[in-house]
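Sanity check

After download, print the first record. It should look like this:
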Amino acid sequence: MTTRQSASPVLQDGGKRGSSPLEPKAPPTGGGEAPAGRPEFFTQAFIAPGGGQRPTLRQLEAFTHIYRLGSLTQAAQAMHVTQSAMSVLLRQLEDVLEVRLFDRTARNLRPTPQAQPVYEMAQQVLHGVGRLVSGARDAAAQRSGVVRLAASSAVAASLLPDVLVAFGEQHPGVRVELLDIGPDQLLEPVLDEQVEFSIGTPDVRSPALEFTPLLSDALAAICRDDAPLAQQNAVRWSQLADEAIITVRPGNGIRTLVDGAILAAGIRLQPRWEVGYLSTALAMTARGLGVSVLPAFLVAGFPYTNLAIRPLVEPTVARDVLLITRRQHSLSPAAEALLRLCRRQAGARPS
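Expected structure tokens:
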């Protein structure tokens, strides 16, 4: 006689299946010990990797309906299938798990002791699938999820703040994680898939990555708006010979452009101040300590109202701020939305 739990519901309509009771089969060997409190057949069927057949979601759904509703007929109605189809799904699940889930008599079905843990885990599986589907749809609709990007510190301080504000307003359920780094570090997080894309001007390239111009820029003289240079439409490099120049230290890609322009202009020019951060250079210029030589687009993102930007000419030194992505790799819908805002903001910047 099979041991029965007194609390288990008795399922009606069992006699309509027209089948003889299934005898329990021996569990497969080689699966290792089951966790405490969980039948070995249950662990092997649901958890063990590899091996034979696995239950289908349709079978699990049928079983949970039967167990919960207490009626094969009502379960079939809930799933909009015939009673015979429901019976087939239940028998297939029992065959896959190699365990009897219900005792069948001529008049009813009664859950076996093994049915309860199977029901609990089946509920977890179905709920997990439901969360997977809703989460994927929310991510596709940009209602939830995470977008990770990297940007040079200059881009992060100038271009991105307005972008992040707009993105937060349009997609409040999506979290943005920003990694602000040096230009020499822009490639690695994209290659390692830590971020979906990077923005900046790296000094090196990689064949595994794509580099797409996001905005074109040029080096400029940035001075106080009451300085003599501010009265000109453009500034020649030779005019900087008598100024206290502020720029970044050697090793930065911007410094390489500055040194090359000085050489091309045929002038002797040694920066008075060398800094590690562009924000430091702008703060010093705002206090009258010198003229910053930096990319023009940076200034608009900083809260200085007394600075003027004048393009440097003879020579004009252009540079591109690049979007860096993995080659042949699609961005998530949320990342695409964020990138559209970056392009829009870049297009709105004064050149």
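If your output differs, re-run the checksum step. Summary of this record's structure: Residues 1-51 have pLDDT under 50 and may be disordered.
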